From TrEMBL:
Residues forming the catalytic site: 74 (proton acceptor)
Protein name in UniProt: Shikimate dehydrogenase (NADP(+))
Domain of life: Bacteria
The SDH C-terminal domain, residue ranges: 254-283
Organism: Phormidium tenue FACHB-1050
Entries under SUPFAM superfamilies matching the protein: Aminoacid dehydrogenase-like, N-terminal domain, NAD(P)-binding Rossmann-fold domains
Domain Shikimate dehydrogenase substrate binding N-terminal: 14-97
Similarity field: Belongs to the shikimate dehydrogenase family.
Pathway involvement of the protein, from the record: Metabolic intermediate biosynthesis; chorismate biosynthesis; chorismate from D-erythrose 4-phosphate and phosphoenolpyruvate: step 4/7
InterPro entries from the UniProt entry: Aminoacid_DH-like_N_sf, NAD(P)-bd_dom_sf, SDH_C, Shikimate_DH, Shikimate_DH-bd_N, Shikimate_DH_fam
Binding positions for NADP(+) per the UniProt entry: 134-138, 231, 254
EC number(s) given by UniProt: 1.1.1.25
Reactions listed under catalytic activity: shikimate + NADP(+) = 3-dehydroshikimate + NADPH + H(+)
Gene: aroE
Length: 288
C-alpha cells in the first residue's frame, strides 16, 4: 500500500490483551508494502470479557479481512467462530481467523511455525522427551508439534490442577496416538533430568516480566544435549534463554516461530506466497 491508508484499505490485525508488545505489525506491514497490497495490519487490544463483542463488531466492519489471536484468546475464540479448520480443531486453539463471505473461519499456524527451526536440527527426536511449561493455547500447539516430531513422551506442567485435568482431557480426545502426561509445577526438577527439549509456553519472561519459569539450578538438571525453546520473542533473549545459553544448551527463541506462523497466516489471508525474508529482516532491523 506504499504507506498510504485510503478509503479502500482493508484491515488485518492481532487481537490480545496485552498486545502492545506484539511485533506482528512490523513484519506484516513490511510484507504487505513490498507486495503492493492495499492492506494495513494493526493491534486490537481486547480484554477477555470483551472478546465476544469484539468478534461480532469486527464482522460488522466489512474492511476487516482477518486477524491473529494471542494470549489470552486462542482457546476462548473457538465457540465465537463460524468454522474451525481441522488443524485448529485437532490442536484445540485458533491463532488466525479469515473472513470468508460473512463468516469467520479459524485455523492454527502455530504448529508449523514452532516446528520450523527444529526441523533444521539434526536431533534424535524419538529419544527426546518434551517438557512443556504452561497449558494455554500455545501449549496445545506445542503438544501437536512434539507429536509430529516423534517425541516419545510429552510432559505438560502447570500450576492449576483443574486446568491441567481439563487440558489433558481436551488433548487426548483430539490427538489420540501419543503419550501425554500432565504434572503439577513442583514436578519440574525430576522431569528436566530426562528432557530432550524444554519449552516455555507461558508468558513468564515477557518484556513486562523479568522472571524466568525455571531457575538456574533447575536448568542445571537438564542433559547436556537438551534444547531450551522459549516461545517469547521480546525481550531477546529472555532470562530463561540467557540461563540456558550460559549452561551451554541449544537456545531457541520465538522469533522464527513468529515469522513462520505469520507468513503462513498472511498467505491464508492473501491467497498467495509472501516474502518471508522481508518479514524476517523487518523484525531483525526493528529489534536492532
Amino acid at each position: 500500500m506504499g504507506g498510504s491508508i485510503l478509503g479502500t484499505t482493508k484491515i488485518l490485525g492481532v487481537m490480545g490483551f496485552p498486545v502492545s508488545h506484539s511485533l506482528s505489525p512490523v513484519m506484516h506491514n513490511a510484507a504487505i508494502a513490498s507486495m503492493g497490497f492495499d492492506y494495513v495490519y494493526v493491534p486490537f487490544p481486547i480484554p477477555v470479557e470483551d472478546l465476544p463483542a469484539a468478534i461480532a463488531g469486527l464482522k460488522a466492519i466489512q474492511s476487516v479481512q482477518g486477524f491473529n489471536l494471542t494470549i489470552p484468546h486462542k482457546v476462548e475464540v473457538i465457540p465465537l467462530l463460524d468454522e474451525v479448520l481441522p488443524i485448529a480443531k485437532a490442536v484445540g486453539a485458533v491463532n488466525t481467523v479469515k473472513r470468508v463471505g460473512d463468516r469467520w473461519v479459524g485455523t492454527n499456524t502455530d504448529v508449523a511455525g514452532f516446528l520450523s527451526p527444529l526441523k533444521q536440527l539434526n536431533c534424535d527426536w524419538g529419544n527426546s522427551p518434551a517438557v512443556i511449561l504452561g497449558s494455554g493455547g500455545a501449549a496445545k500447539a506445542v503438544v501437536a508439534a512434539c507429536l509430529e516430531l516423534g517425541c516419545p513422551v510429552i510432559h505438560v506442567v502447570g500450576r492449576d490442577s483443574k486446568k491441567m485435568k481439563k487440558f489433558h482431557g481436551a488433548m487426548t480426545s483430539q490427538l489420540h496416538d501419543y503419550n501425554l502426561r500432565v504434572h503439577p509445577w513442583t514436578s519440574i526438577p525430576h522431569l528436566l533430568e530426562v528432557a530432550g527439549i524444554v519449552i516455555n509456553a507461558t508468558p513468564i519472561g515477557m518484556a513486562s516480566d523479568p522472571n524466568t519459569p525455571i531457575s538456574e539450578a533447575e536448568m542445571d538438571l537438564l542433559p547436556d544435549q537438551a534444547i531450551a525453546y522459549d516461545l517469547i520473542y521480546t525481550p531477546r533473549p529472555t532470562k530463561f534463554l540467557q540461563i540456558a545459553a550460559a549452561r551451554g544448551l541449544k537456545a531457541i527463541d520465538g522469533l522464527e516461530m513468529l515469522i513462520n506462523q505469520g507468513a503462513i497466516g498472511l498467505e491464508f489471508w492473501l491467497d498467495q506466497p509472501v516474502p518471508i525474508e522481508i518479514m524476517r529482516q523487518a523484525l531483525i532491523t526493528h529489534l536492532g
